[in-house]
From TrEMBL:
Protein name: Glycogen synthase
Record domain Glycosyl transferase family: where: 153-300
Top EC class of this enzyme: transferase
Location of the Glycosyltransferase subfamily 4-like N-terminal domain: 14-136
An annotated Gene Ontology molecular function: alpha-1,4-glucan glucosyltransferase (ADP-glucose donor) activity
InterPro entries the record matches: Glyco_trans_1, Glyco_trans_4-like_N
Annotated EC: 2.4.1.21
Alphabetical UniProt keywords: Glycosyltransferase, Transferase
Length: 327
């Protein structure tokens, strides 16, 4: 099967990771193309055919749409798989210059309602919440990812707390920082990620006098090594459409706790869920520190589910959906 994925590149975050992992896995058995900006190249393997394109162009510009149509005619894919609304609309509008109407699959990676998804021949939701805002006939395929080899980093001689997310208010990093003031034990907190809130968070850490206890590490390619070497991972998001870092936690972390959002609301028992406030998080962390082995045992049962989130399973579900659509 010849499959064309399209991605409106902004930065390497959750949507981009899902798209890249799908392309890499599908390319093992299919002819895969990826239409995106040049920056994506370093994340995909050599079997994926990169077609460089910037989707920032006007999606209604007939010259741009004609250019897209020419690319589609040259590639002649069996399926077009869109990962953002902008390219979904571009692919749909480019059809006016084409006699062959190539089926379009669109994955909804966010919870924002977008009417443009009606233009897809098949809509895919990543969770039940997402499916509720899509048109009738949509299906659910939950995200998965590759499990990487772990090379643990040197363990810190304090109770080590980590969190990895985009540095923006909705991810709740400020909650973690404020909760640190209420912890009853010696700790080290490492925050991984980049984003528009970075300076604000650094200012908050300094304002609270927590520079020695909390580090903003930034983006790392080997997050799994840090998760495996820490004591507990936190997801403090106000809301998540899915929350891929939860799967990182299932694969690598000895213990994961989260707010009641995204995939965590489905896979974590109530003992590992906390309300979205610094008081609730501090209470939970103090409780975990005092009863660490008990909480590790609770999470160990969740870790047994890890095969459910393999990239191979997710990919096969998409291939099955493509084949069903092509019928």
């Amino acid at each position: 099967m010849k499959i064309l994925h399209t991605l409106h590149w902004v930065q390497f975050a959750g949507t981009e990771k899902v798209c890249v992992d799908l392309c890499n896995e599908m390319s093992k058995n299919h002819d895969v193309y990826l239409l995106s900006k040049a920056e994506i190249s370093k994340y995909v393997n050599h079997e994926v055919n990169i077609v460089k394109l910037d989707f920032e162009k006007n999606r209604y510009n007939p010259f741009f749409l004609y250019k897209i149509a020419k690319i589609l005619k040259k590639i002649s894919p069996d399926i077009i798989h869109c990962h953002n609304t902008k390219e979904l609309e571009v692919m749909y509008n480019a059809r006016i210059f084409m006699s062959k109407k190539i089926p379009i699959v669109a994955t909804k990676h966010t919870l924002r309602a977008k009417k443009r998804y009606k233009k897809a021949d098949l809509c895919v939701a990543i969770l039940e919440d997402t499916k509720e805002i899509l048109k009738d006939g949509s299906i659910i395929i939950k995200n998965g990812m590759y499990e990487k080899k772990v090379n643990p980093v040197k363990k810190i001689d304090k109770f080590h707390i980590v969190s990895a997310a985009r540095l923006s208010p909705v991810k709740g990093m400020q909650t973690i920082i404020k909760a640190a003031l209420m912890l009853d034990f010696d700790f080290k907190i490492s925050l991984f990620g980049q984003g528009e809130q970075e300076q604000e968070l650094r200012n908050l850490i300094k304002e609270l006098g927590l520079e020695k206890q909390i580090d903003i590490v930034g983006f790392v390619d080997n997050l799994q090594d840090y998760l495996a070497s820490a004591d507990v991972q936190i997801i403090a998001s106000i809301f998540e459409p899915y929350g891929l870092t939860a799967i990182d936690g299932v694969y690598y972390s000895p213990l994961l706790i989260s707010t009641n959002t995204g995939i965590c609301s489905q896979i974590l028992p109530k003992e590992l869920i906390f309300e979205s406030s610094e008081q609730a998080l501090a209470f939970k962390l103090n409780e975990i520190y005092a009863n660490y082995n008990k909480y590790k045992e609770i999470f160990a049962k969740v870790k047994k589910m890890k095969d459910e989130f393999s990239i191979e399973k997710m990919t096969q579900k998409y291939i099955n959906a493509y084949q069903e659509l092509l019928k």
